[in-house]
Amino acid sequence: MVYYLLIALLVILANADFDRHKSTLLVDKSSNYRMSFQTCIVVLILVASFRAYNIGLDTMTYKFVYYNNANGIGHTGFELFFDLLFNICNALSLDYSVVISIFSIVCYTLAANYIYKNSINPVFSLLLFVTLGIYAQTLNIMRQALAIIVCLYSVKYIKTGEFIKFIGVIFIALLCHATALIFIPAYFVRYFKLNKYTISFAVLFTCAMSILLPIISKFISGFTTVDYYGRYFEDTYYQNEVSLLAILFTLGLFAIFIIMYANRDKLNNAQGDNKFNIFLKLYFISTLLRIFALFTPAPEVIGRLALFYFIYCIFLIPYFIEFGLVGKKNIWTNLVIFASLIYYVALIEVKKSCGITPYAFIWDRDVILTILFYVIFAVLSVIAIRLIGLRYKEERL
Fold this sequence. Notes:
- This protein is mostly helical.
- It has 20 helices and no strands.
- The protein has a domain at 202-324.
- α15 crosses α16 and α16 runs antiparallel to α17.
């Protein structure tokens, strides 16, 4: 757990320049801010790339498939991107760790690029990416994680109404994981108006739809490249009771939505590009999926699907803090950081979600990597202290 806490602390320190950075769309980012953001991304890539094979429940499964494929025992059965990746790495006789490293570099670089260009405070969004458990999930569900990140790039086509280009991006995501199909309805949020009546109807309809789960699972299985996805909904191995943490998390998500919805006009007009409105509608779908999960025999599976929409929370919260809380930004920033850290610890250490604890490096003797980790952490700490000092000096002047 200590490594994951250090990652969170590192991003918190990088966020020391929060007040200085007003908007990625209106103000040029300072070189220090870019350096802080890039350093955080490098650390995320390193921690993901050099993790042991038992970090992440699916990581061992992928390893088993990779080496079976290398020995000529069947095909991977995965979507095209990972099938090609596995086959190419096998043809070059590369170790499985290379596959993990390639995934880490591609996934977090794409995520970083989108966050940096579309968040009004990229480092704070990155902090939420970590503390809300999205990063932890990527250490486990690698294929789906990459599909989720690719789907981010389709959002601009929702805004512009370019359906063909939107489907093109979704098609690329489908090459990573078939569950990207669930993001196709996202395009139609541009025609959906949020009000108290539509919100109430959507929540009630979601509860009613939960009884149709068997039909939905068969539909998903019929439209995927792998015919075993339906087992996640029907096999008792994947079924479990809804935990108290899951209920509280769902209530928390819905509360966040209500707060954002109540301030939607002010927040959407702050940038004047309607981006907040699109993000809010997408995030609303994640709350519906989480409510749906509470009534299903396989809540963890639905929770994974909800990640396609939940990720937009990391863009909404900075909007609210920046434009919705005049004179109270520091208080709310600290409250959000504290609350998300509590959830982060509960998710990883208490619930043992994703099977990523205790963290271990791929090599038995991890002294060099540990030193490297702390060196990067120290460098970022120095940068954060310098930024705080500069801000203090400006206030004195």
